[in-house]
Every structure is written in C-alpha cells, then in structure tokens.
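Hi Q.,

Before the meeting this afternoon, I wanted you to have the NAP prediction in hand. No need to reply - just skim if you have a minute. The sequence and ligand are here:
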Amino acid sequence: MQVACYTAYGPPETIAFIEAPVPVPGPGEVLVRVRAAPVTAGDARLRSGKVPRGLGLLLRMVIGLRRPRVAPGWAFSGEVAALGREAGDWAVGQQVFGLTGFKGGAHREFLKIPSGGCLLPLPESLGAEEGAAFFFGGLTAAEFLIDRAQLAPGERLLVCGATGAVGGAAVQIGRHLGASVAATASPGNHALARKLGADSVTDYRGPPPEGPFDVILDVMGALGWAGAGPLLAPEGRLVLVTADLSGMLGAALRPRRDGRQVITGTSREDLPAMRRLLSLHQAGGYRPIVGPVLPFTDLVRAHALAEGFHKPGNIVVVMPERPISSLGTWQGS
Ligand SMILES: NC(=O)c1ccc[n+]([C@@H]2O[C@H](COP(=O)([O-])OP(=O)(O)OC[C@H]3O[C@@H](n4cnc5c(N)ncnc54)[C@H](OP(=O)(O)O)[C@@H]3O)[C@@H](O)[C@H]2O)c1
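Predicted structure with the ligand bound:
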C-alpha cells in the first residue's frame, strides 16, 4: 500500500510516498481501508513547522527537532477491511470514520486503529468525502462555542474567517444554538457564509463589523484582543482559535478583562466529542463543507492549498480504487 510520510520540515514537496505492507490487525484492533482523508491547516503546520510566533521551538520539542516525527493525516473515512481478535462489534465492510489524532497516519491506504479508539460508524447521511471532512474544524467549533464560550440562544456571535474548516462549522453551530451570526470572509466567500447561516457578512480586510458581540470567534487570531476587545459586549468572550505565544500567555495569566473573557487552547479529540458533533449533525446543526477534492497522489498540491489558509471547509484526498488483490494479503490474528 502507499503511505505518505514527512521527510523534513519544509514545503509540501518534503512529503514522500513509500510502499509498505498492508498491516495485520492485532488483538483488539480494526483494519480500516481508507477511502478519503482531509488535508487540514493542522497537517500543513506540522509539515512546515510554521506555527504562530513563539511556538516553533515548542512544536519541535514535541514532534521532532529535525523533522516531524508524526505521520501525515489526522482523520479519515473508509471501511472495515479486517478485524483482529476481540475487536468489538465492528463488521468487515462496515463504513466508518474517525481520527488518528495528533500522531497521524491517515494518509495511507490502510490503517490500524484500536476497536475502542476514535472510530464511529459512518451515518448514511454522509458520503465518504463528507465523512473525511467531518471532524476537523467541527470539533473545534463545537468545543469552543458550547463548552468554553457557552454561547446561549439569542446571543450575538461574530465569526472572523467564516468559511474555512473551523469558521464554516462555527457559523452553522452558532446558528443552530440560536445565536445571531455575523461573519467576516473574503468577498468571494460571502455567498457561502450566508448559505451556512450568517445573518450578515463583511470583508475582513475592511472596517470590522459593528458590535457589540457576546462571543467573537477569531479563527486566524487576526483581530486579537486589541481588535476584538472594543467589539465585545460586557461579559463578552473572545475565542482565539489561533494564538501566538504572547496571546496564549495573556489568556492564561489574564483571562478576565473588565468582565470580559479571553479563551484559547486546543480542542479535545475523543469519542464523546465526536459523538456530540454527530448529534449536532443529526439534529440539523452541522454539515461538513467539502472543499477541493483531489486524488491521494496529489497530496503535495493539497498541502500547498491548505497552507494558504483560504480554503472553503476541508480539502479531501481520495484513495485510488485499487483491487485488493494488488495490495498483497494479510490474515487477521
Ligand atoms: N485551537 C485549536 O484547537 C485549532 C483547531 C483547528 C485549527 N486551528 C487553527 O485555526 C486556524 C484556521 O484553521 P482552518 O482549518 O479553519 O483554516 P482554513 O480552513 O484555511 O480557513 C481559514 C479561514 O480564515 C480566513 N482568513 C484568512 N486570512 C484571514 C485574515 N487575515 N483575517 C481574517 N480571516 C482570515 C479565511 O477566509 P477566506 O478564505 O475568505 O480568505 C478562512 O475562512 C489555523 O491557524 C489552525 O491552525 C486551531
């Protein structure tokens, strides 16, 4: 099977493909044949090592000083190809979607995952590409809006950067929670922002929309406290989805400012959070946005698009339709 790997920190061309044997699922493991996988802002950051100011050394201390010692690919959709012993109630042929998470490994044709890991049956309401695009952005938007900012019905939400993976999910979830939603986007994305549920849309390169807002979701950290603070209502919450080191330290050391709150951090990647997002989808509150769809062999191009930070929703790469016989054989244990 084809497996993508990072060879160095650097441009998309540092991605290489290697041939590897199809893995054998061990006890308690599920072998998934990957059908589609997103190429996210997170993937682009891990590969390039380009993170917000002040966080570069920390990233390298966690994932590797000289090259990213994580495998490409954070999420996937596919089907169960084989089961190890005691692999729970999964069935061969079942459509699934899930997360490999921070350690990666979804950009390959087959992956092994613990049967009790971040894996769920793919609902009939989602195709393989939507399944791939489902979690990245959606989990972040749900956690920041619901758990951290506690957005309430009737509140005014501003989503800055409203049509990418995080912002596109936030507009939908905010609307579903009963907030009025103002959005910023580049002019070419205004129609999409409205379609997702924004009540008003302005260009983020112009003057900021008129506040006050109860919650501001600053997707790229472009407003920061200096830009967003004056737009916040008393007791308003600013969520910095992207923050540099000083923004993170500021939020940790001074989270409350004149009754208003600054929130930052990373979102959880676990089954309860995945199930909650699925419930939101089933209640009509969230549908993933599938951006450009490319073949897996175009992974380098997908990374180049992702690191521009102007894509709609999630880019998805689709695996080749190779006959299983051409991939060698394996035996479940
Ligand atoms: N904290 C966490 O747990 C977490 C989780 C996921 C992602 N992130 C971070 O969140 C950021 C966004 O991720 P994503 O996947 O949503 O990215 P994305 O899909 O590339 O979307 C980026 C969005 O930001 C907008 N944008 C670009 N430049 C902007 C600017 N100068 N001012 C305002 N908006 C701007 C884009 O709008 P146009 O396309 O209209 O230009 C687009 O809507 C990344 O920095 C990522 O690393 C953090």
